Amino acid sequence: MTDLYHHPLCPHSRFIRLILGEMGIEPDLVEERVFDRRRDFLIMNPAGTTPVLVEEPVGAVPGPGPISEYLDETRGPALGDRRLMPDDAAGRVEVRRLLDWWNGKFFAEVSSHLITEKVYKRFMTADQGGGAPDMDAVRVARANIRYHMRYIGFLIRGRNWLAGDRLTYADLAAAAHLSAIDFLGDVPWAEDETAKSWYVRVKSRPSFRALLADRVPGIVPSPVYADLDF
């Protein structure tokens, strides 16, 4: 049994869900509101962040980096040429560089602000920091996302996928973050047509279907969110 503690719009959780989908693993999803600081969840991950994968015999595996490494070590070799990590050292370095870009830099500059301000704060109490969104933070994130879109376009104009010739963890991480923001209608798709075309390819994969069915109470997804040809 594979359990995944997640939030539907947590981009790091979406990254792991896409990996699991590509590996043909259907986890039992457990929605976790990290701002509630639930004791049992903090025992699994003292950092108090999603996602956390729980699987016997290893137990709790917290965080997108450790989870993706664990899944690659335990399931990756069986995927053959569909493995999401390249065989060569230089290719693995590039994938890891881009994972740090999306799960670190992009999260800090864009997705963390938008998801916190426009989603999490809706469900947080005043004591937890909830309330109206900080529109200055939202505006900064909306400005920052534009050069990230251009960077995707730059990479794809010289490659088939973000890190090279085949789909890797780098594509799934980038698409996971963009999908959460696209739910909110904050991705400037007109910024770079090459980046948009790349996202359409990832979005059309079977592993993406569960994400496109996600819904959050009180928030209507953008009109193009589930559209495969937008």
TrEMBL record:
SUPFAM superfamilies cross-referenced by the UniProt entry: GST C-terminal domain-like (SSF47616), Thioredoxin-like (SSF52833)
Question: Which InterPro entries does this entry report, sorted A to Z?
Answer: Glutathione-S-Trfase_C-like, Glutathione-S-Trfase_C_sf, Glutathione_S-Trfase_N, GST_C, Thioredoxin-like_sf
- Which GO biological-process labels does this protein carry? glutathione metabolic process
What are the alphabetically sorted keywords of the record? Transferase
- GST C-terminal domain span: 88-230
Q: Name one Pfam family in it.
A: GST_C_3
GO MF annotation list: glutathione transferase activity
Kindly give the PROSITE patterns that the UniProt entry links to this protein. GST_CTER (PS50405)
Please describe the quaternary structure of this protein: Homodimer.
The name this protein goes by in its record:
Glutathione S-transferase family protein
Native organism: Lichenibacterium minor
Taxonomic lineage of the native organism: Bacteria, Pseudomonadati, Pseudomonadota, Alphaproteobacteria, Hyphomicrobiales
